[in-house]
Amino acid sequence: MQSNTRPPVSRADFIRTAGLVTAGTLFFPRKIFAQESPVITIINEAAKSPIVVQKLRGNISVLQGSGGNIAVFTGPDGKLMVDAGIAVSEQKIKAAMAKISNDPLKYLINTHWHFDHANGNPWVHQYGATIIAQENTRKNLSTTIRVKDWDYTFEPLPADGLPTIQFKQTHELDFNGTKIAMRYYNPAHTDCDISVRFPNVDIIHVADTWWNGYYPFIDHDSGGKLEGMINASDYNLANTTNDTIIIPGHGPVGNRKQLKEFRDMLVLVRDRVYKLKKSGKTLAETVAAKPTADLDAKWGKFVLDGAFFTKLVYADV
Predict the structure, then answer these.
(1) Comparing C-alpha atoms, which of 113, 114, 120 is closest to residue 97?
(2) Chain-wide mean pLDDT for the chain?
(3) Is 88 exposed, middle or buried (0-12, 13-18, 19+ CB in 10 A)?
(4) pLDDT per residue as tens digits for the range 265-278
């Protein structure tokens, strides 16, 4: 991690450093952060990152390559996006959506406030979208938030990037002949995570409550909780079938079996770290004990390694 003496940066500046996924290539910020100037490195990578379109079913596609996974639903009423990605990807996202269809953009749903999902809000709104989100998402996007685990301070988005339709627990949108269902999870990855379900085609976007194949980030500075991540996974497992297509916040589009593996990993690491902490181990001693050693080859190959994830879990148990 970098020194806390580094001055705060705006959301826009940090977003340009966060090209996490390119066509099949994963970047490892934990390694890049060790360099003196990570911003230039990640800007260059993000600038090169293509947007890869994966068609699912029922006129729903996923765009990968701009931070979190973006879902696009198109039809006679127009286009709807789930998450906006990173602002530096604006032109590439526009081009990818134009290849999907010529339908106008009408709505954007934010699954939560984080930079890699909502930094594109201003251009998406200017492009024609009304923005919908859980009420805490607007609150977080409207204020200054320091995320200590990232060593960054995020400043508010401009007014045209803020959601104008807000809800507390659930919301439904009639669009393209179906009712799109949004549901708040309670604090999990952050304090504002929601799912977005397309019931007519049995697809659900669960956003950053699931990182398919990777240790997830838990943002304690905006209300995230490990137990909430587990509860969100339990809810999603109880409300999907083996035929459901599940879109994670990061990683490949997946299914219920993969989600259960993720949930079981969270519980296993929680129990191991709790045992060490209860025995009197300090954070440093717990990390040194490597409670995720046998899991790291599978789960530790993206943004978080086992030591970093152990630190996050220690704070929660």
Answers:
(1) 120
(2) 87
(3) buried
(4) 999 999 999 999 99
